[in-house]
Predict the 3D structure of the following.
Amino acid sequence: MKFNKDRNWLTKRAEQEDRHFISVGGLISRIDPEWQADVSSMPNVETTKTAFVRLLQLARRERRLSLEQLAQKADVDLGELVKIESDESFKPTPRTIHQLAEFLKLPAKKLMALAGLLKIKDFGLQQASVRFAARSEPVEDVSPEEHAAFEEYVKFLNEQ
């Protein structure tokens, strides 16, 4: 079988595939070093795990559910839910992800990828995960004590 190695043709095909890393994406990364560098700068698993954890936390809070209530409603182990929300390096079981996906009415495959159980091949999903993780960080008022500590530290850092 012969492969078309024309850079323009491959780039056009990769864009049609929405930069998913299948067939054409793999070929172009081998013949175009610039595109390869683009691939290496993609968000890593930790970023998608952060998005996964925040998604669960916000979905739970939006429904005004405690961890215990969510575990009961989604029919998942409470201990596992606690680990998911408190330890980003924890890998949940596929069953738990399927149950959560069903309860939240979200695609199980995408949740499995966000949880680190599947390799993410969708550049758009990774980018959206990074944006969500950044935007979902709580923004709270700084206490007077925190403000004073911050100002003092910044002053120290700026000293010559």
